[in-house]
From TrEMBL, chain A:
Alphabetic keyword roster: Hydrolase
Annotated protein name in UniProt: Serine/threonine-protein phosphatase
Stretches assigned to the PPM-type phosphatase domain: 315-537
GO molecular function per UniProt: phosphatase activity
Classification of source organism: Bacteria, Bacillati, Actinomycetota, Actinomycetes, Micromonosporales
SMART domains assigned to the protein according to its UniProt record, in alphabetical order: PP2C_SIG
UniProtKB/TrEMBL annotation, chain B:
Protein name per Swiss-Prot or TrEMBL: Cobalamin-dependent protein
Species of the source: Actinoplanes aureus
A GO-annotated cellular component: cytosol
Keyword Metal-binding: yes
Domain B12-binding per the UniProt entry, residue ranges: 98-224
Amino acid sequence: MTARTPAGAGEPLAPMVTDSPAPDLLRAAFEAATEAMLLCAAADHTVLLANAEARRLVPGLGIGHDLAAAPLPALTRAAAENADSFRYEHEGRCVYGMRRRLDDDHYAWFLRDHTEESERAAALEIERSRTAFLAEAGRRLSASLHVRRCTRTTVELAVAHLADAAVVVLPANRRQSAWVRLVPDRAAEEGMLRESRLTDVPGLVEALGGFPPIPSRWLDASHVPDWLFPAELGPIGALLVTPLPGNAEPAGALILARRGPDASFAPEDELLARVFAARAGAAISAAMLYREQVDTTAVLQADLLPPALPEPDGFELTGSYQAAREALRIGGDFYDVFGPAGDSTDTVIALGDVCGTGPEAAVLTGKVRQTLRALRLVHAGPEAMLRVLNEALLQSSRQHRFVTMVIGSINRIDHGRVRLELATGGHPAPLVLRNDGTVEEVPTSGTLIGVMRRTVVHPATVELAPGELCLLYSDGLTEARGGPAGTEQYGEHRLRQALADCRGMPGVVAVERIRQLVSDWVHGGNKDDIAMLAVRAPARAPLSLRGGGVPNTSPFLAAARGGDRRTRARS
Amino acid sequence: MTAPTQPLPLHDPRLAEHYLSLIGDGDERGASELAVALLDGGTPAQRIIVDLIGPSQARVGELWAANEWSVAREHSATAVNERVLAVLAARTTIRPSRGRITLACVDGEWHGLPARMLAELLRLDGWRVDFLGASVPGRHLITHLHQTGPDAVALSCMIPTRLPRAHAAITACRAAGVPVIAGGRGFGPGGRYAERLGADAWAAAGEEAVTRLADGWPPPYVSDVPFLDSDSFLGDEEYTHLVRSRPQLIATAMSRLPATYPVAHHYDHGQLEATAEDLGHIADFLAAALYVGEEQIFTDFVEWTEGVLAVRGVPEAALRAGLRLIRDQLIDFPAAIAMLDAALAR
């Protein structure tokens, strides 16, 4: 706006229509209107009357001026083109104009200054996009509990909304700092950085040290070390290093860079970056806490999960453990295998069920397994193991917790046969699948472990011919509820039938099949742990499921081996 | 790898036939030796998996469906294929050069071998692979994602009845910020249902998945998160009612069966249980078809079942009787009735 007095201001208005002078009152109202108005003669497009607002809006336009020479280019163009409206935007100003016909000889232009409204709308738009950005940031950052994913999301969001390139540097751990970087046209990169290099980046040590953020204008972007960004990014014009606030100590630092000589971070940008960094920091520190917990749990879990089974000579061992539907994959069922120790050549297997599920049951499971391991070292047999375990549980257990379990001692005997001595303490007796497809229950029985002073155990011995299988299982298997009605137990009858159908299958296949049948029965929602352990005397090779034997030699095999391949393959 | 060897006839049908007989006999050692010999002879492990193990497994399924192989033999053969994969894995060490990926079969999906093969192919392509196995409950999968933070989840589903659970898993994975590639014929012809269930990508088979993941992964982040979509629940009240009334539907159908299908009077306990199971399958496939809104899921199932039953000497009338018994109980189920009618009209 100029300070010049607009033309016509304070001057008496010339009569606009010569033959019928307007009443003074009407003229005053015209002059006082807040909308800018220009009354023009249609014949020669001259301005007959311009009110105060019009003179303010279009300085230099006065009575008698030709519209074609008005000092508002958009207006002159509209007049030249005989248009009814125009929109003018220049140097931040925004003016709308609209023409209305008054009578055959006259028309009026109504002009409106939209500069402020446009500014408000633009500010609102910026505010909206910031809100949307922070909402998206909150949503995406809260999605993961994994540190790496959170840091990646942080740089992705930063590059999408705040800067040309972004790096997140995590606090040093053992003199090494992990970093994630994202620059345009590249996938996110990750790496480790020696703690001593952190001082190379202006403001980084301060940000990681928990000091308040340093304004961007104090950070000399020309001091950015070469290793921070790839050369293809070009010279960095502005640098912003913001701490990622965490749990009482920073969760890391966010480095933002804008390229080009004129780049800068305005105070609003810095504020937005700080708000964003607060969210990212909260997400990353939560993920760090979660990782610590997971690491701790994993250590505990490792001892409680079923062991990897040995592959002993002379018989197959297959285990299967399915925890009830919980995130923590540990529960009350367990099995364990103790290989030959000292002068004991037998392999001892145990499968049991501690009352209850979850971590408490799992802890007791751990104790039971440890006790069995110790008993194994003093050469206790299955029956003695159960008795001592009963004593130990009665003396140690604070709450009334009991265990049911089967313990077996496995020995190879002649002709590929396998002998099992089995003893049960209140647990379902194991089943044996014979080669003719019959399923027998092992005649062993006994009382619960950990309840009564006196236990009664009746051990039994079974022998497996090659191809025969003995299945130890927990009652979660037979008590699984489902079926067509949704509430029926799977039951021992169905288990026996399923086992009978497994004739000829290797142990691992039989166990997997039963597991699948039960899963189908319960429609995937098993409420209890299910443990199975199968011992099988291997069928004499080559096993044939269709009766007849097959030749062992293969022309393809021989061709494939050819020459020195053979020795290579064996080495 | 310098000594010249004559090219191995990997595509020779006689080789495939021989391998099939090995796995059909449960000859783990023989099958492994054959695979190792091919590997030592210079055949890439990928080719052995894709051109030998994969087709053999497909044949196993066909032979079971044709009632030529027993369930026991089918399962044993599958187990041998798994062992061969493990042997190949032990003999090929690849330094991980790509990201990390989690592989799982949908909860209730027990066909683990296709996913297992993909796991090997991805490992050979340089991925760090966590294979969680068959039938992975959704919660276990999500816990794993939070613990390992993979770049992708590959979800396998071979049977459409698991699609509602696949949908839940896909939604949860994407909510956890991990993109999902779906695989397996359960997702329909051309993976049609995968997109509807929110998967970021789909691949028909292992090699295609490897190619899809090799380039342009992860896909650009889609800001409209699935759990905010109105589509995050597929199916409508028909699906809900059908699933909730499943036990009564089957019980009523079983009680009415002898009246409409007199042979059932003489069914023994085992046959009755098998029939109830089959009726359960009808209800489950119908529910899946309603959930996804695809009639073809149901008609394909009926067609396939007819084939399987025919070679086992079960007359077509038995299946039709079952379909009618379910249909006649459905009141106010226009979509379900239309599907059943379409199946019956075939």
